[in-house]
Amino acid sequence: MSGGPTRSGSPGRTGEPADETSYEPAHEPANGSAHESAHGSVEGPGGAAADGASGGLGRRRKWVAAVVGGAVLLAGAGVAASLVIKSPAQTAADAAPPPLDVLVARVEKRVLRDTVIVRGTVSAAQSTQVIPAVAGAEGASAPVVTKAPVRQGDRIDAGKVLLEVSGRPVFALPGSLPVYRDLKPGATGDDVKQLQKALAGLGHPVGGDPAGTFGAGTKTALTAFYTSIGYDPVPAVADRGEAVSAAEDAVTAAARSLEDARASAARADAPATSSAGTEGTGTEGGAANGKASAGASAGKSGGSGGSGGSGGSGGQDAARAVSRAEEDLRKAQKRRGDAKAAAGPMLPAGEVVFLESFPGRADSVSVHPGSPVSGSAMSLSAGALVVRGHLQEHQRGLVRPGQKVEVLSELSGVTAAAEVLSVADTAQAEQPSGQSGTGTATGGGQGQQAPAPSAATGYALVVRPLQTLDAKLVGQDVRLTVEAAATDGDALVVPVSAVSAGADGRTTVTVVDGTGTQRRIEVRPGTTGDGYVEVKPVGDGQLAEGNNVVTGVNPGAAGKTGKGDGGKDGGDKSGGAKGSGGKAAGAAAGAGSVREASAAGVVAA
User: Fold this and answer.
1) What does CATH list as the number for 102-106+490-604?
2) Of the candidates 142, 221, 278, 303, which lies 20 to 30 Å from 232 by C-alpha distance?
């Protein structure tokens, strides 16, 4: 058919590509419908596929563009919102005043206490080191412990034997005076009175002995006590009674001499009495003997008178001999009494330990049978528990008897209220923890002090608990918080660094309001403690709880502004300086006028 399309891939033509199509122009355009029909039959399938592919790609591109555009719009909206919308916190921060160029602290209203904290050791009211000083047995080279019946922690009762040294006992008796000498018969004093009271308390009265005099009754009581604990008392005189025996012999001899003198005097007096009326001349022998001869003639011569005179002289000599014999006997009897008084039992200082109260407690025992006697044998305590510590020089003036104390045992967590019992007036060497004491028991009549290692010096402090402490706390190291001073109720308090003393002598604090405005208020300082000081406004000054007061300069702002109440000139001049040197100068100028040294404020008060 003329004008129709011819496909090159028709079977009639071989050797050409089958997929190539050639178009020939129509020679009869008048037949439009036929042309369109034919053209459509040729392009229809291929053209539709191409149009579908182009349309899908376009639609995908549109979606991508829409998503990207939306994201851009959302991001822009977020940025815009962040620039316009603010959180409440940010709004408040923006509305707040700029940071202060000074450091401030709030004024508080409370009870202010000034405290002193020291360490202490729990011990009994009396702590005694037992240091035996008993002489060794005869033939022994040195004293040695022969018995040790007491163990650590044992209860100590009055009259109890603590240990035995070289066969001699060391026992405890009630009393507050430390032993310092041997107590022997005839001794007098308060220590003798203490012994008499202790013996009577154990059931051994001293009879009629005066209080404070070691007499026969005290000797009897002491002997009875030694017998009750199974020992013989030590004799006061070591001559085994030889002095008393010699005194007894002297009395016997004096008594016999007196008897002879009296007999002689009696013989001298008898003839003189019988011949008083006899007459005669007398004889020489009669004159010599003071007797008149019965056979002599009764003469009236002077010889008779001479005979009577000789008899009177003999009587006087006899009387004088009797008087002297009586005096010798009295002296011998006195010496015998003195010898007997000095004889009897004694109380060696090395055999007794006096404790203020009973029962006591053995805190430590360092000896056993066979131990040589050297230093302290044991430590005893008696009385209520107290706490002993030491104050340093700078603390001494802050602590006084009667002040409140809190006792804290960090080991057990126990707390107890207490009060200061005493503070030493002079410094002394501190004793190591657990070795504090008020007395020692030593022998030999010397009353030696228990040795203790030297340590730092301090003022001895004794604290008395207001409640009974557990005995398990004995020897523990505890913390003592002494309330050295306190305000009378609630008071306005500020940090010590907030108080300044001006050149005019006024003591002030600087109050800062919310806008940073500063105003000075004159105050009167009061009690100080723990870095704070009580302040009271003077005159019309207004100071209230919650006010902010200047305590220092803000390091971050001081160099920029150099502000400070009363120091604006120096601060403003220096604050504008450039560089680190200008900042430092501004800070120094501002700081110098904001506050003075806190110590100066307290001293000025």
Assistant:
1) 2.40.420.20
2) 142
